[in-house]
Predict the 3D structure of the following.
Amino acid sequence: MRSVVFELEGLEGGVRTASVDLDERDPSSCIFPSSVHLRELGFSSLSQSQFPSSSHGKVQVVHKGRRLQSLEGLGHGEVVRVRVCGLRGGGADGGSTGAEDRKAWLEMFLEQKPDKVDPREVKKAKWTRCQLSGEELSPPCVADCLGNLYNKEAVVSRLLSKSMPSGCSHIKNLQSVTDLKLERNEESPAGGSRDFQFQCPVTGLEMNGRFRFYCVRPSGLVVSQRAVREAKECVEELSGGTVEGNLLPLNGTEDEVRALRDKWEKDQQAKKKKKKKKSRDSPS
């Protein structure tokens, strides 16, 4: 089950945010708007016929600056923006209904505060759930070149079915990910939270989003930044190699992810040039 976050932009800047599950067994769940989407966004009293059609330019579903016709191909936890320009009346007599009256429409949102996506829950999901399937992280786990975490089974399944989401198009094969060596957090519930399964093998810090963590490549050892800073020799002994130039930040900052993506793109271009050169140099 995948979950997509809707950010509904209404009149006068009103915004409602809601998370909607997409049932992969039911293709209709990926068609917007559906009765499920309308209910989750607070339009329980409206039918699809009353909701303005996107074909008339009344509703725009946008993901990363691109208008979507369907929700298919979106990864778990991705955010789409829904821009609503107005609501259609039903009298056909030039009058108006409560649904299309601007004041009434805004009051509909003010009656109950919009559900906001808790940033703490978003951060928690990055460290506890597979970014492909949305399921709880369970070894064997892998990390991609951008530092995202996945269950290896989910990656293999997507590769075999050739259904990798566009947001994960950089994962071409299993060589695109690194197998992770994760230390289980065996602390009892009385002494610590069991919401977070893994910890640093050197410092014992919980892998919960409060502390920075790295994957030491190529070994895949997962350690905290504090371990690298304060016990570098121990980390190198456990990983079997030097840490210099081999640290992949897990769930890094926007700047770190941008730098990692740029590096990946440059590596891909270099590989293409090398392949072309080899092809030209080979005897025909």
